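DM from R.C. (forwarded with permission)

"hey, sorry to bug you on a friday — could you get me a structure for this? deadline for the figure draft is monday and I only need the backbone to look sensible"
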Amino acid sequence: MNNRMKLMVWIGALLFSSLGCNAATKLIHQDEPVVPTLPARAAQDISCPSVLSQIMMAATTPGSHKAAQQETYLVTYDVMGDKLSNPVFQTVSSDFESEQNDLATQKHIWEYFASLIPERNRRMITNYSVLTDGKDNVLSAVAQTLADPKHWVLEVDIADAEDYGNLTFTMIHEYGHLLTLNADQVPPDMIVFNHPGNKDIFQQESAMCSSYFSGEGCSKPDSYINQFYQRFWGDIYTEWSQIDQIAAHQKVLFFYEHPELVQLRAEILNRLCAVYPD
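My reply, with the result:
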């Protein structure tokens, strides 16, 4: 797990921290979980602890995984605010026709995500793709669009849509990528984008970056991901596997230094409490 992925897990820990600190840190440190000490108010702004408990239980309980099938893309929509439009259906075998034609479930998944994340905080999403690789494998992902690296696509496996615990945790995890890698935080490196897989160009661009180079580009000095990297990883990046448990609570508390993230956390949790299925 690289440091970018670890940042995403800590974002998940932040969002569920007031109830699920122990469970969230077990997800990261299986042997010696560390329970972060959080601001007192964090324990007071949760109105549905049983829901969060269900989500954390689902996210930290090992499941039975079947061999992954090849990913099959079913349909891609344009996104404008809360609305989906212009569906483009892929040519698929008859095995996938029922899922491809299940427009109600496809729409419901998007509406659930949109109900969790405020519209103003997800404007980088311009497409929504429904795919499947069978149950219990890839649940959701985000990626820069092929047309414009400033725009992103949310991808969700329709076969896993009924597992609301893992679906919720994974969607919030994926939103963490959008929160920290969008163009306002990490301006896209067009040279890398136009030469995917070229290791020489990647190394060249990375070497020219004085802050954290995420792969998508050189992060801004005041970006969340660069601040996190410089504080916790700048001097120890090559040794993280030995010493990552140092100051684990500080990694969660880092996010509380940003009032806009504290506000966003509260809003997502309030929305989650309102829309999570009984």
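R.C.: lifesaver. Residues 188 and 216 are 5 Å apart (CA to CA).
me: no worries. The chain has eleven helices and five strands.
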